[in-house]
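Archive maintenance. Older records in this collection stored only the sequence; we are now back-filling the structure field for every entry so that each record is complete. The fields below show one back-filled record exactly as it appears after the update. Entries are processed alphabetically, and Putative TIM-barrel fold metal-dependent hydrolase is next in the queue.

ARCHIVE ENTRY
Title: Putative TIM-barrel fold metal-dependent hydrolase
Organism field: Actinocorallia herbida
Length field: 382
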Amino acid sequence: MTQMDIRQLSSSEMSPVRVVDCDVHPYPRRGVMHQFLDPKFVKEQRLRAEGANNGIFYDAPDFNFAKAMRVDSFPSDGEFACTDPHMAFRQLVLDSGSDVVMLGPTSGGIGDTDEEVSAMAAATNLWQEACWLDPENNWHGRYFGSICANISEPDVAAREIEKWAGHEKYKQVLIHAEPRPAWGHPKYDPVWAAAVKHGIPVACHLGRGKHNLLPMSPVGFMSYNHDFMVTYSMLAANQIMSLVFDGVFERFPTLQIVFIEHAFSWILPLMWRMDAIHAARGNELGLSKKPSQYVKDNIWFTTQPLDYPEDKLELTNALEWMEADKIMLFSSDYPHWTFDEPRWLAKHLPEPMRDAVMYQNAVDLFRLPSRLPALAGQVRAY
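Back-filled structure field:
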């Protein structure tokens, strides 16, 4: 189907938004990012693309074959998965039923030094605007971008947020969770302040980390991809405890934090534990709420990866106990091999919370349109 054919699918009839995908990873075509990147880093980036200094930690299944991507997400011109906005539109919106797509480029966190990471974040923001959010590629108005920012350089990150926060297509800030110290440290306050000033959520996507930032468990580095991936939930748990107990939400009561791809089933026992310790020790930290209430008021999780037990009733109970309708957002993780089809995910949610998780929470959080022009032939997820 050609680009012109796709555009003919749109009509003047308005259709309600029923699925908002909060985790989609666009990738730049070969060499395209260099036109937006500080020239200082272009040579190093070219060498890295040829294999120099490009170690991969804890390979995902079939990484050597498909780079941990869906094999059908690679365009026929030989470019990488999800480099073609029109192909992504067909697979995500027409074929799978997502109505709104939140772009979360991973290129904004690449670099060996803070200076390079900040430069890549700035280049990625320019690239999104020029190659995905422009009228030619976003003619349907269903793509929304993320302001990539280097949390390790808070003042630089805050300036990047200020630069893009007024853009109608940028709906969240995107950072990484690995940098140390934890987010409760006051050094990060410029980032939270800029986000709160503009009423824009701060999302965090898991990353592999590099060198001293490689995620590490309390007993050292992991042996396999299996324990490496599980450890990301522990990383998120520690950041949540820091946000709560170090008073970030007291300093910034309206700050909204989104944990993308860190799983979520662990949050219920963590809330129980935080509340129990807080009650036992007394309010020596001066918090105005129970720790669990900050989670419900200020923190969000995406559905992918869905921890799916053999007994589905266990999943249903967990979702109800943790009040998932208040803290969950649908995500597919396209184009990765772990992609969750919206139709598959929706049927595993308890019906009373399905609408909230699949679209309404995201519409409210990101201030997204609730209706868009109808598309002929679009699959409806549920």
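Update note: The chain is about 40% helix and 10% strand. The longest strand covers residues 10-16.
Entry marked complete.
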